[in-house]
């Protein structure tokens, strides 16, 4: 039984020569002047790979050209980007400070409500001991006097 990815017979393919053109040259089919030598390499597992030796074509050095955008224009653009980043950071800082202020205000209000509730319970609640002092008893008497009694 054979594996579907591994052919049973050895197939030999003859490589086609490839010509490398510089990027500025127009692409046109060109026959090589002579057929280059074929080189074979045997891999460690016993397979033989055959192909042409390609020598890379040296490309000419790029010509020194002036940049498309002047340095002054580039500096102005980068300065504008930096300014926008600083403004965005200041907006974020301002919103963070506003949120922190609102949070602290809510904590103060919550503490006032809890403390006020505790005071109200102390004044209006029934206590078993009469150790609250004269002021608390007077307030209880005033509050009790204002209730409707039948």
Alpha-carbon Rg, integer: 46 Å
Class per helix and strand makeup: mainly alpha
Shape category: elongated
Spatial separation of the terminal alpha carbons: 108 Å
Tell me how many strands there are. Answer: 2
* Residue-averaged pLDDT: 76
Helix content: 40-55%
| Largest sheet data | 2 strands, antiparallel
Encode the helix/strand succession as letters: EEHH
The DSSP helix count reads 2
Unreliable parts: 132-136
Spatial strand order of the main sheet:
1-2
- Report the sheet-strand fraction: 5-15%
Protein architecture, described:
- It is a single chain.
- The chain has 2 helices and 2 strands.
- It has 150 residues and is mainly alpha-helical.
- The protein has a two-stranded antiparallel ribbon.
- The longest helix is centred in the middle third of the chain and has 54 residues, at 71-124.
- The model is unreliable at 132-136 (pLDDT under 50).
